[in-house]
Amino acid sequence: MIKGVGPALNALLIGLGVRRFDQIAAWTARDIAEVDQHLGAFRGRIERDHWVDQAGYLARGDTAGFEARYGALGSEIARA
Predict the structure, then answer these.
(1) In the structure, how many helices (H) and strands (E) does the chain have?
(2) How far is CA 57 from CA 9, 28, 39, 41, 54, in A?
(3) Would you give the end-to-end CA distance of the chain in angstroms?
(4) pTM for this entry
(5) Per-block average pLDDT, block size 10, for the chain (80 residues)?
(6) Burial readout 4-30 (b: 16 or more C-beta within 10 A, e: otherwise)
(7) 24 with 52: CB under 8 angstroms?
(8) What pLDDT does 80 receive?
(9) Can you tell me the distance from the alpha carbon of 45 to that of 9, in angstroms, rounded to the nearest whole number?
(10) CA-CA distance, 76 to 80, in Å (whole number)?
C-alpha cells in the first residue's frame, strides 16, 4: 500500500522482518540507513518516496489523510 513499494521491495522487507506499517512509521534515521543498505538498486527510496510518513498514515488508519497527501490507494487495496 505504500507508494513506491512494489512486489520486489515488499518481499525484501518481509525477508527483513518488516511486516507492519507501524514498524516503518517508527523508523529512525539509523533504521532507515540500515534498511537502505539492503535495497540494492532501490537505495534511497525510503526517503525519496516518504515511506515513514506514508506508513504513519496507514498505521493510524487515516485513509483520507493518506489520499490527500499521496493520492488514491486504489480499489483493490480499499477492499483488503
Answers:
(1) 7, 0
(2) 19, 16, 23, 26, 5
(3) 10
(4) 0.89
(5) 95 97 98 97 97 98 97 60
(6) ebeeebeebbeeeebeebeebbebeee
(7) yes
(8) 40
(9) 10
(10) 7
